[in-house]
Specification:
single chain; 388 residues; mainly alpha; transmembrane; cell membrane; dehydroascorbic acid transmembrane transporter activity; MFS_sugar_transport-like; membrane
Length: 388
């Protein structure tokens, strides 16, 4: 179909409103004909991956106190083993991040999401069936591997599916679902033991794998593979039957052509490239150095060592606060701006972590920490975890 004729058709009035429609831009005219129902459905299915990622991050917090006091000596964790149980997931996540970059180019976004569901399910299955500590470790590494792939693929999948009007909103759902997953596993840990908790954590990735069978590949990836007909079908599913998808398909093709060759190390000589890359990398490094992952892994143990009577409930409150402020940030991000939010959150983290460290320093002076393997039979340690 002739793209110029299509553009003119978009700008022509229907029902006698020629003057009003004539003032609309091509993009506004196109988006006015878009139905977002299937786009929202595909987004909801894909963010089951970040929810599973949140389950993995939060799983160790309610589980470690149970495994340090379990009666089975084959599964009972000492201080070092419990620390590894919480942190070893990051080893798998690091490998998953590298693997995900290769998978999205080799297999596409949709298949990569389906494949990353398998380590989630196998990892939690390994934990459910664990007969020794090493099976617990393997399960955590597998779920970490899936988390690393998910954290790369899902934002890419959503950004390539969504149009400009809703891309920012849908993109913010990724982090929101991560913290919802963390809060969910903390909340479920109040009522379920560690095996049943792992069973519940395996449900979202199973649904992800099944439901993604009915979702499309991203139009951008299909066009990059020369599959224009399949790309048009994907756009028709995502935009609805009334949207003239040939116009958007042509725009995506133009964007792919303008992108040109792949990134090369020599491109880093360009200040327009290395400056934003450096800023982005440093932001990610500083984010990880705040220690938030360690707090999520060992939240219940931290509150126990801080002498909270209801440490598991305190963990749920932390998860709830994360959900609330992630939602608030998503709502005000476009109005307030990214920079001011980063400054405010950075200052708040600096103050809170300083207070956190001072509190534990003073407490260690007055109450020397318990060392060695935890005594599961002692009532004082029946719910005591391991230091992080």
């Amino acid at each position: 179909m002739d793209i110029q004729n299509e553009s003119r058709r978009l700008l022509d009035a229907e029902d006698g409103d020629e003057d009003l429609t004539g003032l609309m831009s091509e993009q506004d005219a196109y988006l006015s004909k878009v139905n977002n129902r299937n786009l929202y459905l595909a987004t909801f299915v894909s963010v089951l991956g970040p929810m599973s990622f949140g389950f993995v991050l939060g799983y160790s917090s309610p589980t470690i106190p149970q495994l340090t006091s379990i009666s089975d000596p084959r599964l009972r964790l000492d201080a070092n083993q419990a620390s590894w149980f919480g942190s070893i997931v990051t080893v798998g996540a690091a490998a998953g991040g590298l693997l995900g970059g290769w998978m999205v180019e080799k297999f596409g976004r949709k298949l990569s999401l389906m494949f990353c569901s398998l380590p989630f399910v196998f990892g939690f299955t390994m934990i459910i069936a664990a007969q020794n500590v090493w099976m617990l470790y393997v399960g955590r590494v597998l779920t970490g591997l899936a988390s690393g792939v998910t954290s790369l693929v899902v934002p890419l999948y959503i950004s390539e599916m969504a149009h400009e009007r809703v891309r920012g909103t849908l993109g913010s759902c990724v982090q929101l679902m991560v913290v919802i997953g963390i809060m969910g596993v903390y909340l479920a840990g109040l009522y379920l033991d560690w095996r049943w908790l792992a069973i519940c954590c395996s449900i979202p990735p199973t649904l992800l794998m099944v439901c993604m069978c009915f979702m499309p590949e991203t139009p951008r990836f299909l066009l990059s593979q020369g599959k224009r007909r399949e790309a048009e079908e994907a756009l028709r599913f995502l935009r609805g039957p009334d949207a003239p998808i040939e116009w958007e398909c042509a725009r995506i093709e133009d964007a792919c052509n303008e992108q040109g060759s792949r990134f090369q190390m020599s491109d880093l000589k360009d200040p327009g490239v290395y400056k934003p890359v450096m800023i982005g990398v440093m932001l990610m490094i500083f984010q990880q150095m705040t220690g938030i992952n360690a707090i999520m892994f060992y939240a219940e143990n931290i509150f126990e060592q801080a002498h909270f009577k209801e440490s598991n409930l305190a963990s749920v409150i932390v998860g709830l606060i994360q959900v609330i402020f992630t939602g608030v940030a998503a709502l005000i991000m476009d109005r307030a701006g990214r920079k001011i939010l980063l400054i405010i959150s950075g200052a708040a983290m600096a103050i809170s972590t300083t207070a956190f460290g001072v509190y534990f320093y003073l407490m260690s002076k007055n109450h020397p920490p318990h060392t060695g393997t935890l005594d599961a039979g002692h009532p004082e340690h029946s719910r005591r975890g391991t230091p992080c």
